Amino acid sequence: MQAFHSNWTRPFFIRNPHIEYRIEPFELLTTALSALEWRRENGSIRMICDTPAKRYYESLGLCFLWDDGVYPLLDTMPEDINATAFWAAGKLYALSAVPSPCVMLDTDFICWKSISNLLDGPDTAAIHREDIMPSIYPDQTAFAKTEGFPRRLPA
């Protein structure tokens, strides 16, 4: 099964405008392990990123991790996306660029075994969910309401 990692650097540069792009060594190790274990157990993987991320991986000699290539497709993301509020928007753009069926993997997610039996049948699957934590995600009341859009979704 085709999988991909993604890396959109704009949120990093918004928070750190005067420093060179970098990823913590532990995060690089989990990225390598994620890509290599996916390849060993499940199939091909690619990286969908922007040019600063691609250059960074090239400078470290890590592009070999993604046997299906490294593609700076996130360079075309609209400039008006608020990268502070929507730091994960790159994942959605990457998802739109990869043909289905595919698996979107976080770079810190490691598949230690084949998951092909879990993917046969469902149109969409999630491996885990994340609770909405007030220290990270604002309450629904923090968002402006568009006319005709309900503030609360039906239960």
Describe the structure.
With 155 residues, the chain is of the alpha/beta class. It contains 5 helices and 4 strands, in the order βααβαβαβα. The chain has a 4-stranded parallel β-sheet. α3 (51-60) links the parallel β2 and β3. The longest helix has 17 residues, at 25-41. The model has no long low-confidence stretch (mean pLDDT 87).
Uncertain regions spanning at least 5 consecutive residues = none
Mean pLDDT: 87
- Over all CA atoms, what is the radius of gyration? 17 Å
Order of helices and strands: EHHEHEHEH
Largest sheet: 4 strands, parallel
What is the beta-strand fraction?
A: 5-15%
Overall outline: globular
Q: Helicity, in percent?
A: 25-40%
What order do the strands of the largest sheet run in, or round the barrel if closed? 3-2-1-4
Category from helices, strands and their pairing:
alpha/beta
What count of helical segments does DSSP give? 5
* Beginning-to-end CA distance, first to last residue: 34 Å
Instruction: Please count the beta strands (DSSP E, at least 2 residues each).
Output: 4
Descriptive labels:
alpha/beta; 155 residues
Briefly say what this structure is.
This protein is an alpha/beta fold and 155 residues long. The protein has helices spanning 10-15, 25-41, 51-60, 89-97, 116-119, and strands spanning 3-7, 45-49, 70-71, 103-104. A four-stranded parallel β-sheet has the order 3-2-1-4.
